[in-house]
Amino acid sequence: MPSPAAKQPKLDAVDLEIMRASLDGIVQEMQNSLFRTGYSTIVRESQDASCAIMNPQGLVIAQHVVLPLHIGSFPACCQAVLRTYDDIAEGDAYLINHPYEGGSPHAPDMAVITPVFVDGEMMGFCASIAHKSDIGGPVPGSCSGQARETFNEGLHLPAVRYQRGYQRNVEIERIIASNSRTPELVLGDIRGQLGSSRLGEERFATLIRKFGRDNAVACFARLLELAELRMRAAISEWVDGRYEAERFVDDDGIELNKPVRIHVVAEKKGDNIHFDFSGSADQTRGPANIRPPLVNAACAYVLIALVDPHIFVNSGLFDAFNITVREGSVMNPRYPAPVNTYNPTVHATVEAVFAALTNIVPAKARADGCGSRSIILGGRSTYTGKGYVQYEILGGGAGARAAKDGTSGTSVNQSNAKIAPIEIVESEFPTRVERFELIRDSGGAGKFRGGLGIRREYRNLEDARFSIRSTKHVIAPNGAAGGGKGRTGDIIVNPGTAEEKRLPTRYADYPLKASDRFQLDTPGGGGLGNPLEREPAMVLSDIREGYLSVEAAARDYGVIIAADAVDEAATRTERSSRAKA
Protein backbone atom coordinates (compact mmCIF):
# COMPACT_ATOMS: atom_id res chain seq x y z
CA MET A 1 0.00 0.00 0.00
CA PRO A 2 1.40 3.42 -0.91
CA SER A 3 1.74 5.85 1.95
CA PRO A 4 -0.72 8.79 2.17
CA ALA A 5 2.15 11.12 1.32
CA ALA A 6 2.77 9.26 -1.89
CA LYS A 7 -0.78 9.98 -3.03
CA GLN A 8 -0.31 13.71 -2.79
CA PRO A 9 0.30 15.34 -6.18
CA LYS A 10 3.70 16.87 -6.69
CA LEU A 11 3.25 20.53 -7.58
CA ASP A 12 5.35 21.74 -10.46
CA ALA A 13 6.26 25.45 -10.27
CA VAL A 14 5.57 25.94 -13.97
CA ASP A 15 2.16 24.27 -13.75
CA LEU A 16 1.34 26.36 -10.70
CA GLU A 17 2.13 29.59 -12.54
CA ILE A 18 0.13 28.46 -15.58
CA MET A 19 -2.80 27.69 -13.29
CA ARG A 20 -2.52 31.10 -11.61
CA ALA A 21 -2.38 32.96 -14.91
CA SER A 22 -5.24 30.85 -16.30
CA LEU A 23 -7.50 31.65 -13.34
CA ASP A 24 -6.70 35.33 -13.76
CA GLY A 25 -7.54 35.09 -17.45
CA ILE A 26 -10.83 33.33 -16.78
CA VAL A 27 -11.95 36.07 -14.39
CA GLN A 28 -10.95 38.75 -16.89
CA GLU A 29 -12.98 36.97 -19.57
CA MET A 30 -15.96 36.81 -17.20
CA GLN A 31 -15.68 40.53 -16.54
CA ASN A 32 -15.39 41.39 -20.23
CA SER A 33 -18.56 39.41 -20.85
CA LEU A 34 -20.37 41.18 -18.00
CA PHE A 35 -19.37 44.67 -19.10
CA ARG A 36 -20.24 44.02 -22.74
CA THR A 37 -23.67 42.59 -21.97
CA GLY A 38 -24.60 45.12 -19.28
CA TYR A 39 -27.96 46.80 -19.76
CA SER A 40 -27.35 49.74 -17.44
CA THR A 41 -24.76 52.48 -17.80
CA ILE A 42 -23.70 51.53 -14.27
CA VAL A 43 -22.37 48.19 -15.47
CA ARG A 44 -21.71 48.91 -19.14
CA GLU A 45 -19.97 52.30 -18.79
CA SER A 46 -18.98 52.83 -15.14
CA GLN A 47 -18.08 49.13 -14.67
CA ASP A 48 -19.38 49.07 -11.10
CA ALA A 49 -19.03 45.29 -10.92
CA SER A 50 -16.47 42.53 -10.52
CA CYS A 51 -16.13 38.77 -10.88
CA ALA A 52 -14.39 36.01 -8.95
CA ILE A 53 -13.78 32.27 -8.72
CA MET A 54 -14.11 30.59 -5.32
CA ASN A 55 -13.28 27.16 -3.93
CA PRO A 56 -15.98 24.85 -2.48
CA GLN A 57 -15.67 26.61 0.91
CA GLY A 58 -16.37 30.01 -0.63
CA LEU A 59 -12.82 31.36 -0.42
CA VAL A 60 -11.72 33.52 -3.34
CA ILE A 61 -8.99 31.84 -5.35
CA ALA A 62 -9.01 34.39 -8.19
CA GLN A 63 -10.33 37.93 -8.50
CA HIS A 64 -9.02 40.17 -11.23
CA VAL A 65 -9.34 43.43 -9.31
CA VAL A 66 -11.92 45.92 -10.47
CA LEU A 67 -13.54 46.76 -7.14
CA PRO A 68 -11.19 45.81 -4.27
CA LEU A 69 -13.94 45.68 -1.63
CA HIS A 70 -15.49 42.67 -3.29
CA ILE A 71 -12.68 40.40 -2.11
CA GLY A 72 -14.37 40.66 1.29
CA SER A 73 -17.90 40.49 -0.09
CA PHE A 74 -17.59 37.37 -2.26
CA PRO A 75 -16.76 34.91 0.55
CA ALA A 76 -19.45 36.33 2.85
CA CYS A 77 -22.09 36.05 0.11
CA CYS A 78 -21.01 32.56 -0.94
CA GLN A 79 -20.90 31.29 2.63
CA ALA A 80 -24.47 32.51 3.10
CA VAL A 81 -25.45 30.26 0.18
CA LEU A 82 -23.58 27.33 1.76
CA ARG A 83 -25.33 27.91 5.11
CA THR A 84 -28.74 28.06 3.47
CA TYR A 85 -28.64 25.17 0.99
CA ASP A 86 -27.43 21.61 1.48
CA ASP A 87 -28.63 20.41 -1.93
CA ILE A 88 -26.52 22.54 -4.27
CA ALA A 89 -26.54 20.97 -7.71
CA GLU A 90 -25.20 21.46 -11.20
CA GLY A 91 -27.27 24.05 -13.07
CA ASP A 92 -28.08 26.04 -9.92
CA ALA A 93 -27.67 29.77 -9.55
CA TYR A 94 -28.14 31.89 -6.44
CA LEU A 95 -28.87 35.54 -5.74
CA ILE A 96 -28.03 37.53 -2.62
CA ASN A 97 -27.77 41.25 -1.87
CA HIS A 98 -28.36 41.33 1.89
CA PRO A 99 -25.52 43.19 3.68
CA TYR A 100 -26.16 41.39 6.98
CA GLU A 101 -27.08 37.89 5.78
CA GLY A 102 -24.23 38.01 3.28
CA GLY A 103 -21.56 40.58 2.54
CA SER A 104 -22.85 42.98 -0.09
CA PRO A 105 -21.55 46.51 0.59
CA HIS A 106 -25.15 47.69 0.25
CA ALA A 107 -28.35 46.25 -1.16
CA PRO A 108 -27.95 47.61 -4.73
CA ASP A 109 -24.84 45.39 -5.04
CA MET A 110 -26.35 42.05 -6.03
CA ALA A 111 -24.31 38.86 -6.23
CA VAL A 112 -24.99 36.04 -8.70
CA ILE A 113 -23.28 32.81 -7.64
CA THR A 114 -23.16 29.53 -9.56
CA PRO A 115 -21.56 26.24 -8.51
CA VAL A 116 -19.03 24.55 -10.79
CA PHE A 117 -19.29 20.77 -11.12
CA VAL A 118 -16.72 18.58 -12.85
CA ASP A 119 -17.60 14.93 -13.36
CA GLY A 120 -20.32 15.18 -10.71
CA GLU A 121 -18.14 16.80 -8.03
CA MET A 122 -18.52 20.42 -6.95
CA MET A 123 -15.17 22.12 -7.49
CA GLY A 124 -16.03 25.69 -6.60
CA PHE A 125 -18.13 28.68 -7.57
CA CYS A 126 -18.14 31.41 -10.18
CA ALA A 127 -19.64 34.72 -9.08
CA SER A 128 -20.12 38.37 -9.84
CA ILE A 129 -21.31 41.37 -7.86
CA ALA A 130 -22.83 44.30 -9.76
CA HIS A 131 -24.59 47.48 -8.73
CA LYS A 132 -28.27 47.69 -9.70
CA SER A 133 -29.84 50.89 -11.00
CA ASP A 134 -32.83 50.64 -8.65
CA ILE A 135 -34.18 48.03 -6.22
CA GLY A 136 -36.96 50.11 -4.70
CA GLY A 137 -37.01 52.13 -1.53
CA PRO A 138 -38.13 55.73 -1.06
CA VAL A 139 -35.84 57.37 -3.66
CA PRO A 140 -34.78 56.56 -7.24
CA GLY A 141 -31.53 54.63 -7.22
CA SER A 142 -32.21 53.15 -3.76
CA CYS A 143 -29.39 55.15 -2.11
CA SER A 144 -31.07 57.48 0.32
CA GLY A 145 -28.63 59.59 2.33
CA GLN A 146 -31.32 59.92 4.99
CA ALA A 147 -32.06 56.20 5.46
CA ARG A 148 -32.45 55.29 9.12
CA GLU A 149 -32.60 51.49 8.75
CA THR A 150 -31.98 48.89 6.07
CA PHE A 151 -35.69 48.75 5.34
CA ASN A 152 -35.34 52.24 3.80
CA GLU A 153 -32.79 50.89 1.35
CA GLY A 154 -34.87 48.83 -1.05
CA LEU A 155 -35.43 45.11 -1.66
CA HIS A 156 -33.17 42.77 0.34
CA LEU A 157 -32.72 39.19 -0.81
CA PRO A 158 -31.11 36.62 1.46
CA ALA A 159 -29.51 33.71 -0.36
CA VAL A 160 -32.20 32.48 -2.76
CA ARG A 161 -32.06 29.91 -5.55
CA TYR A 162 -32.44 31.71 -8.87
CA GLN A 163 -31.99 28.72 -11.18
CA ARG A 164 -32.50 24.99 -10.85
CA GLY A 165 -31.35 22.77 -13.70
CA TYR A 166 -30.45 25.91 -15.69
CA GLN A 167 -34.09 27.09 -15.57
CA ARG A 168 -34.77 30.55 -14.16
CA ASN A 169 -37.16 31.02 -11.28
CA VAL A 170 -39.54 33.51 -12.89
CA GLU A 171 -41.28 34.18 -9.58
CA ILE A 172 -38.07 35.68 -8.19
CA GLU A 173 -37.68 37.76 -11.32
CA ARG A 174 -41.25 39.04 -10.94
CA ILE A 175 -40.58 40.02 -7.32
CA ILE A 176 -37.41 41.89 -8.27
CA ALA A 177 -39.08 43.60 -11.24
CA SER A 178 -42.07 44.73 -9.19
CA ASN A 179 -39.72 46.37 -6.66
CA SER A 180 -37.71 48.36 -9.19
CA ARG A 181 -38.29 51.61 -11.04
CA THR A 182 -36.12 50.23 -13.87
CA PRO A 183 -37.08 46.53 -14.07
CA GLU A 184 -35.71 45.92 -17.57
CA LEU A 185 -32.28 47.21 -16.62
CA VAL A 186 -32.13 45.30 -13.36
CA LEU A 187 -33.19 41.97 -14.85
CA GLY A 188 -30.98 42.54 -17.89
CA ASP A 189 -27.94 43.09 -15.70
CA ILE A 190 -28.75 40.04 -13.56
CA ARG A 191 -28.98 37.88 -16.67
CA GLY A 192 -25.69 39.35 -17.87
CA GLN A 193 -24.13 38.35 -14.57
CA LEU A 194 -25.55 34.86 -14.96
CA GLY A 195 -24.10 34.61 -18.46
CA SER A 196 -20.65 35.63 -17.23
CA SER A 197 -20.80 32.96 -14.52
CA ARG A 198 -21.80 30.28 -17.01
CA LEU A 199 -18.84 31.28 -19.19
CA GLY A 200 -16.58 31.08 -16.14
CA GLU A 201 -17.92 27.63 -15.27
CA GLU A 202 -17.05 26.32 -18.72
CA ARG A 203 -13.53 27.73 -18.64
CA PHE A 204 -12.93 26.64 -15.04
CA ALA A 205 -14.08 23.08 -15.71
CA THR A 206 -11.83 22.89 -18.80
CA LEU A 207 -8.86 24.03 -16.72
CA ILE A 208 -9.47 21.39 -14.06
CA ARG A 209 -9.80 18.61 -16.63
CA LYS A 210 -6.60 19.77 -18.30
CA PHE A 211 -4.50 19.47 -15.13
CA GLY A 212 -6.47 16.75 -13.39
CA ARG A 213 -8.69 17.01 -10.36
CA ASP A 214 -6.03 16.30 -7.70
CA ASN A 215 -3.43 18.62 -9.21
CA ALA A 216 -5.99 21.41 -9.60
CA VAL A 217 -7.19 21.14 -5.99
CA ALA A 218 -3.60 21.14 -4.75
CA CYS A 219 -2.80 24.17 -6.89
CA PHE A 220 -5.79 26.12 -5.56
CA ALA A 221 -4.75 25.39 -1.97
CA ARG A 222 -1.16 26.34 -2.72
CA LEU A 223 -2.17 29.66 -4.29
CA LEU A 224 -4.03 30.59 -1.10
CA GLU A 225 -0.99 29.60 0.94
CA LEU A 226 1.43 31.52 -1.27
CA ALA A 227 -0.64 34.71 -1.05
CA GLU A 228 -0.44 34.55 2.74
CA LEU A 229 3.27 33.70 2.73
CA ARG A 230 4.07 36.51 0.27
CA MET A 231 2.25 39.03 2.42
CA ARG A 232 3.78 37.76 5.66
CA ALA A 233 7.28 37.84 4.16
CA ALA A 234 6.84 41.51 3.22
CA ILE A 235 5.35 42.42 6.60
CA SER A 236 8.20 40.67 8.44
CA GLU A 237 10.68 43.10 6.87
CA TRP A 238 8.90 46.10 8.38
CA VAL A 239 9.82 47.53 11.79
CA ASP A 240 7.70 46.30 14.68
CA GLY A 241 5.59 48.97 16.32
CA ARG A 242 2.19 50.22 17.43
CA TYR A 243 0.76 53.20 15.63
CA GLU A 244 -2.62 54.88 15.47
CA ALA A 245 -4.38 57.28 13.15
CA GLU A 246 -7.84 58.59 12.50
CA ARG A 247 -9.95 60.21 9.83
CA PHE A 248 -13.40 61.76 9.89
CA VAL A 249 -16.40 61.48 7.59
CA ASP A 250 -18.33 64.75 7.10
CA ASP A 251 -21.56 63.39 8.61
CA ASP A 252 -23.97 60.46 8.44
CA GLY A 253 -26.70 62.22 6.46
CA ILE A 254 -28.93 62.64 9.53
CA GLU A 255 -26.79 64.48 12.10
CA LEU A 256 -25.26 66.99 9.71
CA ASN A 257 -22.99 68.75 12.20
CA LYS A 258 -21.49 65.61 13.70
CA PRO A 259 -18.40 64.18 11.96
CA VAL A 260 -18.01 60.41 12.12
CA ARG A 261 -14.71 59.26 13.63
CA ILE A 262 -12.78 56.36 12.13
CA HIS A 263 -9.89 55.36 14.40
CA VAL A 264 -7.38 52.56 13.96
CA VAL A 265 -4.52 51.17 16.02
CA ALA A 266 -2.13 49.17 13.83
CA GLU A 267 0.19 46.87 15.76
CA LYS A 268 2.84 45.07 13.79
CA LYS A 269 4.69 42.11 15.33
CA GLY A 270 6.86 39.80 13.29
CA ASP A 271 4.98 38.76 10.20
CA ASN A 272 1.47 39.79 11.31
CA ILE A 273 -0.47 43.04 11.68
CA HIS A 274 -3.47 43.60 13.90
CA PHE A 275 -5.86 46.45 13.10
CA ASP A 276 -8.04 47.54 16.01
CA PHE A 277 -10.94 49.86 15.16
CA SER A 278 -12.50 49.84 18.63
CA GLY A 279 -11.97 53.60 19.01
CA SER A 280 -14.22 54.39 16.04
CA ALA A 281 -17.60 56.07 16.47
CA ASP A 282 -20.71 54.23 17.55
CA GLN A 283 -22.99 53.08 14.76
CA THR A 284 -24.66 56.03 13.09
CA ARG A 285 -28.33 56.85 12.72
CA GLY A 286 -27.79 57.55 9.03
CA PRO A 287 -26.36 55.22 6.37
CA ALA A 288 -22.64 55.75 7.09
CA ASN A 289 -22.12 52.30 8.65
CA ILE A 290 -20.05 49.52 7.11
CA ARG A 291 -19.94 45.80 7.82
CA PRO A 292 -16.83 43.77 8.85
CA PRO A 293 -16.32 42.14 5.41
CA LEU A 294 -15.66 45.63 4.03
CA VAL A 295 -13.28 46.50 6.88
CA ASN A 296 -11.32 43.34 6.10
CA ALA A 297 -11.25 44.21 2.41
CA ALA A 298 -10.14 47.79 3.10
CA CYS A 299 -7.19 46.58 5.18
CA ALA A 300 -6.26 44.04 2.52
CA TYR A 301 -6.39 46.76 -0.13
CA VAL A 302 -3.95 48.95 1.80
CA LEU A 303 -1.52 46.08 2.34
CA ILE A 304 -1.67 45.13 -1.35
CA ALA A 305 -0.91 48.75 -2.30
CA LEU A 306 2.04 48.89 0.10
CA VAL A 307 3.50 45.49 -0.78
CA ASP A 308 2.83 44.81 -4.45
CA PRO A 309 -0.09 46.08 -6.53
CA HIS A 310 0.41 43.12 -8.87
CA ILE A 311 0.17 40.46 -6.17
CA PHE A 312 -2.21 37.60 -6.97
CA VAL A 313 -5.42 38.51 -5.15
CA ASN A 314 -7.18 35.78 -3.18
CA SER A 315 -8.54 35.05 0.28
CA GLY A 316 -5.13 33.87 1.51
CA LEU A 317 -4.21 37.51 2.03
CA PHE A 318 -6.64 37.70 4.96
CA ASP A 319 -4.58 35.18 6.92
CA ALA A 320 -1.66 37.62 7.15
CA PHE A 321 -3.54 40.10 9.36
CA ASN A 322 -6.52 40.32 11.67
CA ILE A 323 -8.97 42.98 12.73
CA THR A 324 -11.00 43.96 15.77
CA VAL A 325 -14.30 45.76 15.14
CA ARG A 326 -16.44 46.68 18.12
CA GLU A 327 -20.04 45.48 17.89
CA GLY A 328 -22.41 48.42 17.77
CA SER A 329 -19.81 50.67 16.16
CA VAL A 330 -19.83 52.29 12.73
CA MET A 331 -17.51 49.45 11.62
CA ASN A 332 -19.77 46.66 12.90
CA PRO A 333 -23.34 47.93 13.28
CA ARG A 334 -26.23 45.97 14.72
CA TYR A 335 -29.02 44.99 12.35
CA PRO A 336 -30.96 46.82 10.94
CA ALA A 337 -28.65 49.87 10.96
CA PRO A 338 -28.53 51.53 7.51
CA VAL A 339 -25.45 51.04 5.33
CA ASN A 340 -26.28 52.18 1.81
CA THR A 341 -23.98 55.24 1.55
CA TYR A 342 -21.05 53.27 2.92
CA ASN A 343 -18.26 54.44 0.61
CA PRO A 344 -17.18 57.62 2.47
CA THR A 345 -16.62 55.51 5.59
CA VAL A 346 -14.54 52.99 3.65
CA HIS A 347 -12.41 55.81 2.22
CA ALA A 348 -11.84 57.15 5.73
CA THR A 349 -10.90 53.62 6.84
CA VAL A 350 -8.42 53.20 3.99
CA GLU A 351 -6.83 56.58 4.63
CA ALA A 352 -6.60 56.02 8.39
CA VAL A 353 -4.87 52.66 7.82
CA PHE A 354 -2.50 54.24 5.27
CA ALA A 355 -1.69 57.01 7.75
CA ALA A 356 -0.95 54.52 10.53
CA LEU A 357 1.22 52.29 8.34
CA THR A 358 3.15 55.26 6.95
CA ASN A 359 4.96 55.24 10.29
CA ILE A 360 6.11 51.69 9.51
CA VAL A 361 6.68 52.14 5.76
CA PRO A 362 7.58 55.84 5.33
CA ALA A 363 8.82 55.33 1.79
CA LYS A 364 5.22 54.55 0.77
CA ALA A 365 3.72 57.70 2.29
CA ARG A 366 0.79 59.30 0.47
CA ALA A 367 -1.69 62.09 1.07
CA ASP A 368 -5.45 61.68 1.20
CA GLY A 369 -7.50 61.64 -1.96
CA CYS A 370 -10.91 62.92 -2.99
CA GLY A 371 -12.99 59.97 -1.75
CA SER A 372 -15.87 58.99 -4.02
CA ARG A 373 -19.37 60.12 -4.80
CA SER A 374 -22.35 59.29 -6.92
CA ILE A 375 -25.19 61.40 -8.20
CA ILE A 376 -28.58 59.88 -8.90
CA LEU A 377 -31.44 61.40 -10.86
CA GLY A 378 -34.71 59.61 -11.39
CA GLY A 379 -38.11 60.23 -12.87
CA ARG A 380 -40.34 59.27 -15.75
CA SER A 381 -39.22 60.33 -19.19
CA THR A 382 -41.81 62.02 -21.39
CA TYR A 383 -39.86 60.72 -24.40
CA THR A 384 -40.05 57.02 -23.53
CA GLY A 385 -42.90 56.98 -21.02
CA LYS A 386 -40.73 54.81 -18.77
CA GLY A 387 -38.99 55.37 -15.48
CA TYR A 388 -35.28 56.09 -15.60
CA VAL A 389 -32.44 56.30 -13.12
CA GLN A 390 -29.31 58.25 -14.07
CA TYR A 391 -26.55 56.99 -11.79
CA GLU A 392 -23.04 58.35 -12.15
CA ILE A 393 -19.87 57.75 -10.15
CA LEU A 394 -17.34 60.57 -10.09
CA GLY A 395 -13.81 60.86 -8.77
CA GLY A 396 -11.53 63.84 -8.31
CA GLY A 397 -7.94 64.38 -7.22
CA ALA A 398 -5.68 61.65 -5.87
CA GLY A 399 -3.29 62.42 -3.03
CA ALA A 400 0.36 63.07 -3.81
CA ARG A 401 2.79 60.20 -3.33
CA ALA A 402 6.32 60.03 -1.96
CA ALA A 403 7.87 60.83 -5.34
CA LYS A 404 4.99 61.82 -7.63
CA ASP A 405 2.18 64.32 -7.94
CA GLY A 406 -1.33 63.03 -7.41
CA THR A 407 -3.37 62.11 -10.47
CA SER A 408 -6.16 64.50 -11.48
CA GLY A 409 -9.76 63.62 -12.32
CA THR A 410 -9.56 59.99 -11.29
CA SER A 411 -11.00 57.39 -8.95
CA VAL A 412 -9.05 56.82 -5.74
CA ASN A 413 -8.58 54.08 -3.18
CA GLN A 414 -11.09 51.25 -3.44
CA SER A 415 -13.38 53.16 -5.81
CA ASN A 416 -12.28 51.98 -9.20
CA ALA A 417 -15.31 52.75 -11.37
CA LYS A 418 -15.17 54.88 -14.49
CA ILE A 419 -16.82 58.24 -15.14
CA ALA A 420 -19.62 57.76 -17.67
CA PRO A 421 -18.92 59.47 -21.03
CA ILE A 422 -20.91 62.63 -21.72
CA GLU A 423 -22.17 61.21 -25.02
CA ILE A 424 -23.70 58.21 -23.24
CA VAL A 425 -25.26 60.31 -20.47
CA GLU A 426 -26.86 62.73 -22.91
CA SER A 427 -28.12 60.02 -25.25
CA GLU A 428 -29.78 57.94 -22.51
CA PHE A 429 -31.09 60.51 -20.02
CA PRO A 430 -32.96 63.85 -20.17
CA THR A 431 -29.94 65.93 -19.19
CA ARG A 432 -27.15 67.97 -20.71
CA VAL A 433 -23.59 68.19 -19.41
CA GLU A 434 -22.64 71.83 -19.91
CA ARG A 435 -19.25 71.79 -18.21
CA PHE A 436 -16.66 69.11 -17.44
CA GLU A 437 -13.26 70.40 -16.41
CA LEU A 438 -10.47 70.24 -13.87
CA ILE A 439 -10.67 72.79 -11.05
CA ARG A 440 -7.62 75.00 -11.00
CA ASP A 441 -5.83 75.33 -7.62
CA SER A 442 -7.81 72.42 -6.11
CA GLY A 443 -4.82 70.14 -5.51
CA GLY A 444 -3.08 70.45 -2.15
CA ALA A 445 0.27 72.24 -2.25
CA GLY A 446 3.44 70.28 -1.58
CA LYS A 447 6.81 69.25 -2.90
CA PHE A 448 4.55 66.91 -4.78
CA ARG A 449 1.17 68.42 -5.63
CA GLY A 450 -2.19 66.79 -5.02
CA GLY A 451 -4.31 65.88 -8.02
CA LEU A 452 -7.04 68.26 -9.16
CA GLY A 453 -10.75 67.78 -8.58
CA ILE A 454 -13.31 68.08 -11.36
CA ARG A 455 -16.31 70.32 -12.01
CA ARG A 456 -19.27 68.80 -13.80
CA GLU A 457 -22.28 71.01 -14.48
CA TYR A 458 -25.62 69.67 -15.68
CA ARG A 459 -28.81 71.15 -17.05
CA ASN A 460 -31.93 69.15 -16.37
CA LEU A 461 -34.36 68.77 -19.30
CA GLU A 462 -37.24 67.28 -17.31
CA ASP A 463 -38.46 67.29 -13.74
CA ALA A 464 -36.44 64.81 -11.69
CA ARG A 465 -35.68 63.65 -8.16
CA PHE A 466 -32.04 64.17 -7.23
CA SER A 467 -29.86 62.41 -4.64
CA ILE A 468 -26.17 62.57 -3.86
CA ARG A 469 -23.87 60.53 -1.66
CA SER A 470 -20.50 62.19 -1.37
CA THR A 471 -17.72 63.04 1.05
CA LYS A 472 -15.13 65.71 1.89
CA HIS A 473 -17.38 68.71 1.32
CA VAL A 474 -16.70 69.78 4.93
CA ILE A 475 -13.50 68.00 5.97
CA ALA A 476 -10.74 68.51 3.41
CA PRO A 477 -8.38 65.74 2.22
CA ASN A 478 -5.28 65.77 4.42
CA GLY A 479 -1.80 66.44 3.14
CA ALA A 480 1.20 64.40 4.29
CA ALA A 481 4.72 65.24 5.49
CA GLY A 482 4.00 68.97 5.55
CA GLY A 483 1.87 69.07 2.41
CA GLY A 484 -1.28 71.18 2.17
CA LYS A 485 -4.87 70.00 2.20
CA GLY A 486 -6.83 69.48 -0.99
CA ARG A 487 -9.82 71.68 -1.84
CA THR A 488 -13.17 70.47 -0.49
CA GLY A 489 -16.04 69.43 -2.74
CA ASP A 490 -19.42 71.10 -3.24
CA ILE A 491 -22.85 70.56 -4.76
CA ILE A 492 -24.85 73.63 -5.80
CA VAL A 493 -28.24 73.82 -7.48
CA ASN A 494 -28.73 76.76 -9.87
CA PRO A 495 -25.33 78.33 -9.12
CA GLY A 496 -25.02 82.08 -9.57
CA THR A 497 -28.77 82.72 -9.57
CA ALA A 498 -31.29 84.00 -7.03
CA GLU A 499 -32.40 80.37 -6.59
CA GLU A 500 -28.93 79.09 -5.70
CA LYS A 501 -28.97 76.34 -3.08
CA ARG A 502 -26.06 74.40 -1.58
CA LEU A 503 -26.89 70.81 -0.62
CA PRO A 504 -25.28 68.75 2.16
CA THR A 505 -22.68 66.06 1.44
CA ARG A 506 -25.40 63.40 1.48
CA TYR A 507 -28.88 64.33 0.37
CA ALA A 508 -31.88 62.42 -0.87
CA ASP A 509 -34.81 63.32 -3.08
CA TYR A 510 -34.24 66.98 -3.91
CA PRO A 511 -36.87 68.04 -6.49
CA LEU A 512 -35.22 69.37 -9.64
CA LYS A 513 -37.33 71.20 -12.18
CA ALA A 514 -36.86 71.15 -15.92
CA SER A 515 -34.17 73.72 -16.86
CA ASP A 516 -32.60 73.63 -13.38
CA ARG A 517 -28.81 73.42 -13.34
CA PHE A 518 -26.61 71.79 -10.75
CA GLN A 519 -22.86 71.90 -10.32
CA LEU A 520 -20.78 69.20 -8.69
CA ASP A 521 -17.26 70.09 -7.59
CA THR A 522 -15.18 67.17 -6.41
CA PRO A 523 -12.29 67.51 -3.94
CA GLY A 524 -8.64 67.75 -4.87
CA GLY A 525 -6.02 65.48 -3.37
CA GLY A 526 -3.70 66.48 -0.53
CA GLY A 527 -0.12 67.51 -1.19
CA LEU A 528 3.00 65.79 0.14
CA GLY A 529 6.14 67.51 1.45
CA ASN A 530 7.09 71.13 1.95
CA PRO A 531 5.62 73.29 -0.88
CA LEU A 532 8.69 75.56 -0.73
CA GLU A 533 10.77 72.60 -1.92
CA ARG A 534 8.82 72.13 -5.15
CA GLU A 535 10.94 72.84 -8.19
CA PRO A 536 10.00 76.29 -9.58
CA ALA A 537 10.02 74.80 -13.08
CA MET A 538 7.30 72.34 -12.03
CA VAL A 539 5.25 75.22 -10.61
CA LEU A 540 5.60 77.09 -13.91
CA SER A 541 4.59 73.98 -15.83
CA ASP A 542 1.47 73.68 -13.68
CA ILE A 543 0.57 77.29 -14.48
CA ARG A 544 1.01 76.74 -18.20
CA GLU A 545 -1.12 73.61 -18.05
CA GLY A 546 -3.89 75.49 -16.25
CA TYR A 547 -3.53 73.47 -13.06
CA LEU A 548 -2.30 76.39 -10.94
CA SER A 549 -2.89 80.15 -10.90
CA VAL A 550 -0.11 82.72 -10.70
CA GLU A 551 -1.58 83.90 -7.40
CA ALA A 552 -1.52 80.40 -5.91
CA ALA A 553 2.05 79.91 -7.09
CA ALA A 554 3.12 82.90 -5.00
CA ARG A 555 0.84 82.19 -2.05
CA ASP A 556 1.39 78.44 -1.68
CA TYR A 557 4.82 77.83 -3.22
CA GLY A 558 6.64 81.12 -2.89
CA VAL A 559 7.28 81.10 -6.63
CA ILE A 560 7.06 84.48 -8.31
CA ILE A 561 6.04 84.50 -11.97
CA ALA A 562 6.64 87.42 -14.30
CA ALA A 563 6.07 87.47 -18.08
CA ASP A 564 5.36 83.72 -18.16
CA ALA A 565 8.68 82.89 -16.52
CA VAL A 566 10.02 82.27 -13.04
CA ASP A 567 11.52 85.37 -11.46
CA GLU A 568 14.36 83.47 -9.85
CA ALA A 569 15.70 86.29 -7.71
CA ALA A 570 12.29 87.22 -6.33
CA THR A 571 11.50 83.54 -5.75
CA ARG A 572 14.73 83.00 -3.78
CA THR A 573 14.01 86.06 -1.68
CA GLU A 574 10.41 85.03 -1.01
CA ARG A 575 11.28 81.46 -0.08
CA SER A 576 14.19 82.54 2.08
CA SER A 577 12.03 84.94 4.08
CA ARG A 578 9.40 82.23 4.64
CA ALA A 579 11.99 79.70 5.72
CA LYS A 580 13.35 82.13 8.34
CA ALA A 581 9.84 82.83 9.61
Tally of contiguous helical segments: 13
Helix content: 25-40%
The secondary-structure class comes to alpha+beta
Number of domains: 3
Cα distance spanning the termini: 84 Å
Q: Tell me the β content.
A: 15-25%
Mean pLDDT across every amino acid position: 95
How is this structure best summarized?
By secondary structure, this protein is α+β, with helices and mostly antiparallel strands. It contains 13 helices and 22 strands.
Please supply descriptive tags for the structure shown above.
13 helices, alpha+beta, 7-stranded antiparallel β-sheet, 22 strands
Describe the model:
By secondary structure, the chain is of the alpha+beta class. It folds into three domains: 4-230, no CATH class; 365-532, no CATH class; 535-581, no CATH class. Helices cover 31% and strands 22% of the residues. The strands form five sheets. The protein has a seven-stranded antiparallel beta sheet, sandwiched between helices. A five-stranded antiparallel beta sheet has the order 14-15-20-17-18, covered by helices on one side. Strands 8-9-10-11 form a four-stranded mixed beta sheet. Strand 9 (260-269) and strand 10 (272-276) form a beta hairpin. The model is unreliable at 1-6 (pLDDT under 50).
